[in-house]
Amino acid sequence: MAGRREKYGQSIRGYRIAGAIAIGVLLGCVFAFLYPSGFFSPQTRPLSKSNLQVDSSNCESTEKVNMMKSENRRLSEKNAELQKQVRELNQKLQVAEQGNGRAQEQQLVVSSQPQKAGPFGTVKSLRTNPPVLPDESVNPRLAKLLSEIAVNKEVIVALANSNVKSMLEVWFNSIKKVGIPNYLVVALDDTIVDFCKENDVPVYKRDPDENVDFIGKSGGNHAVSGLKFRILREFLQLGYGVLLSDVDIVYLQNPFDHLYRDSDVESMSDGHNNMTAYGYNDVFDEPSMGWARYAHTMRIWVYNSGFFYIRPTIPSIELLDRVADRLTKQPNSWDQAVFNEELAFPSHPGYIGLYASRRTMDIYQFMNSKVLFKTVRKDANLKKLKPVIVHVNYHPDKFPRMKAVVEYYVNGKQDALDAFPDGSV
């Protein structure tokens, strides 16, 4: 009996489990039919008005920012133009003030700083003018370039166009041979820019200027030479001492090791001996004057405007301005003649002279080609000297003579200079 009851109870429990499973499956099918996406599916909400306003606000903000940036650029350009005009007006004002009553200004300086004179033979006047305060706003691009290549705020500068390309190559190769790092070519056309870059030569091309560019690209030696007085002004305003160099020059030593730097202008001479280079008393004879027939004059051969060191001082800048102004007003003038006249002529009625100090370079260190070919190559002792530079300024066959100078002084070819005449053929 007991066995039959246990078997009966187990069968009832099995039916109950099977029924529960069947009911669960049935309910699952019903819910799956009624809620195909499930009880907790996310519901998509429509965009609210606030969202649309945010997107619209973002678009408007972007447009305003762009407009503000554009306006800022326009104002910056306008400000730069106004600053340039202010600088130009200030420069004109300074020139006007310096030219108006210069003698009175000099007297004021002297009288405002009275000094007692020392014992006999000990009194020395001021020889070296103070440098200008550098103004990088004049030309930020040039200022950056000079800061990278100049040594002790000094640099060799040469102007060049395509007409002097062959001489320019001899020029910068001689500089590289000596190991001079601080030099710069001011290119007057794009051909020279590319040529310098190909040869790893520091080069600078000015911003476009119709008057300068026309002469720079097509002008001959004298026309291009006259441009330097206008171009050098920015170098001095930036506070740099400049050794201005023509390209018909061969460098054999570093010229910066042989400068005195005690004058506004330190220039090589066209003189060919001590008298002509450094000055002499030239007596003019006029027999008709009888007892007063002899008139004494002081003479000195001109400075060469193709090689001079100029310090960044007010008198130096005034010199550049004077020469550039005269060359503009007198287009047939020779820049070297004007350069020397402005340095030499004293003040007199109707004219205020330039108060600039000057020094003549040693003619055997800074040698012109007349000294070399007429004197040095024929003198056994002078031939032993090694000049700092040789400037082929006296001869039109510049390129072959430059190469001969390199052969003689650099490569040691003793007869390299012999084939050339003293003068030009």
3D structure, described in words:
By secondary structure, this protein is α/β, with parallel strands linked by helices. 48% of the residues lie in helices and 13% in strands. The protein is elongated and about 160 Å long. 28% of the residues are buried. It starts with a helix and ends in a 16-residue tail after the last helix. A seven-stranded mixed β-sheet has the order 3-2-1-4-9-6-10, with helices on both faces. The chain has a three-stranded mixed β-sheet with strand order 5-12-11. Strands 7-8 form a two-stranded antiparallel sheet. The N terminus is likely disordered. InterPro entries: Nucl-diP-sugar_transferase, Nucleotide-diphossugar_trans, RRA1/2/3. It is found in: Golgi apparatus membrane. Its EC number is 2.4.2.-. Keywords: Cell wall biogenesis/degradation, Coiled coil, Glycosyltransferase, Golgi apparatus, Membrane, Signal-anchor, Transferase, Transmembrane, Transmembrane helix.
